[in-house]
Amino acid sequence: MIIVVTGASGYLGRAVAAELVTAGHEVRTLQRRPSGVDGVMDVLGSITDPDVVVHAVAGAEGVIHLAAKVSLAGDPAEFQVVNVEGTRTVLEAAERAGVSRFVQVSSPSVAHAGSALAGVGAEPASPADARGDYARTKAESELLALARDSASMRVVAVRPHLVWGPGDTQLVGRILDRARRGRLPLLDGGRALIDSTYIDNAATGIVAALLRAEEAHGRAFVITNGEPRPVGELLAGICIAAGVRPPQWSLPAGVARAAGSLIERVWAIRPGEDEPPMTRFLAEQLSTAHWFDQRETRRALDWQPTVSIDEGLRRLSAH
Questions:
Q1: CATH code given to domain 2-163+196-224+292-306
Q2: What is the CB neighbour count within 10 angstroms for residue 109?
Q3: Which of 105, 131, 289, 303 is deepest in the core (most CB within 10 A)?
């Protein structure tokens, strides 16, 4: 097929585009800078520019939409413009171009209201309950995409959870940076059980959603390795793989949440140059269970992860 991947200059987008090329598809990518993926045709521009989007999707049979503003803080209006209106622009262009398969790459945070998610599936996205502008706008964009599901354009939403692996400058990079500076606390001892997804598994799961759109359309699916670990154990594994001392100190989750709320208010007035050191959303993510029943995901997408957490950590160490 001719497949368009938005956001292919990002860590996960590059992996998805490369997976499609390997499988023999003709791949176009749409993002603001070159993707760096061999064998694709880059279209440079923003998903908020209708003319660029129309050009990118012309003649395509499938679209995998990953482009988004991803951050713990920032201008709420920018989240809205990129994540919601940008998604609307891509959907409308895809419909007009006759695209038959559309995968909306979402996030489990769209269904997180601050309490544990233990052994659940893809709970309904809720913009009203989502924590923070990123999660809220991703929830809105997922609902927007699924509402476009039709006989002519099959839409599937997938929510990969905590994607990591070699070369990741976001999750892994930030964990290591904070650990090196002694700014990575364990909340309530790091006991919360969480799922994560090795990069190869996230990419093949997203591609599987595109290929299974006829059977799985109109629904959302969480994608993970299906190997929940205590958050402290996963953080330690990533740190040890990189030769960095794992986090040694713990904070009560309630203290971290209160501090995160205060920092968010200060950041809104005087934002720093990087991500805030703590937010209420981050404190909740580090202190509540987030693991998911993968049986329906694997059945509906006809997909299985192939790289275990332990093998992923070995590959990270080698990298």
A1: 3.40.50.720
A2: 22
A3: 105
* Alpha-carbon gap, residue 281 to 72, rounded angstroms: 8
Sole residue written with tokens 């994608």: 223
Q: Dmax of the chain from CA atoms? A: 54
Sheet holding 290-292, edge to edge: 117-120, 290-292, 193-194, 229-230
> How distant, in Å, are the alpha carbons of 121, 158, 271, 286 from that of 218?
15, 11, 39, 31
- pLDDT tens for 208-236 read 999 999 999 999 999 999 999 999 999 99
Nearest-10 Cα torsion for 49, 40, 224, 32? -30
Q: Which residue has the higher pLDDT, 256 or 242?
A: 242
Q: How far is CA 242 from CA 99, 115, 169, 247, in A?
A: 42, 31, 13, 13
Tokens 């993968």 belong to 294
Strand locations in 121-246 (E)? 154-160, 163-164, 186-187, 193-194, 197-198, 220-223, 229-230
Burial of 310 (0-12, 13-18, 19+ CB in 10 A): exposed
Cα(211)–Cα(278) distance, integer angstroms: 39
The one-character DSSP state at 218 is T
Angle at 49 between CA 111 and CA 60, to 5 degrees: 80
Q: pTM above the 0.90 mark?
A: yes
Rg of the chain in Å (alpha carbons): 19
Which residues have a catalytic role annotated? 134
